[in-house]
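Quick note —
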Amino acid sequence: MRQFDDIVQKLRQHFGAVTVNPPVSDVALRELHKRVAGVPDVLLSFWRYCDGIRVTRFEEGELFGIEESLSYYPLCGDAQRLGRFVPLRGDGCGDYDCLIIGDGPCERAMVFWDHDVYDGAAYLLGGSLLNYLDMWADHMVHEFLPSGERAPEDQHPWPFDEAWMRRRDPIADRLLGDESSRRWLLRQDNLT
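Predicted structure written out below.
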């Protein structure tokens, strides 16, 4: 998929080492369908493209492969309240960037799930998986040196500058302008 190629190219132009794992097997995708109902095609396409990406030794530089993602699904073993959250990246502190599946607010968007909030999404990370991946890659090349070490100053606006995200991501703009979606994002109005 061209969009995934563009994201990987952006990362490879900056970092000395980018690990793009081989695609997921059809067996693993069938197992995914058994465990997680309503997986969007774009997530299937991502895992058909690669079984995760790693660009730094820090947790924020890793996008989960299917096995790791499923090892956290459902979050906290709570399928009733958190079954719509498919974790794709962790922060090392028990919080996750998640793709929202199934019917309801922010369907197919990427959100931050914070264990301190627990009952729902803390805030929006992207209106879609592809927009999230593009902003994540952009964030990584600005926040980290080519060696993979942190840059001395973090000047990147994502994900806390809502106005920047709304200009960059039309789906996020629509979701953030929708009152019911905004209410579902429990800390969106309290970002620093």
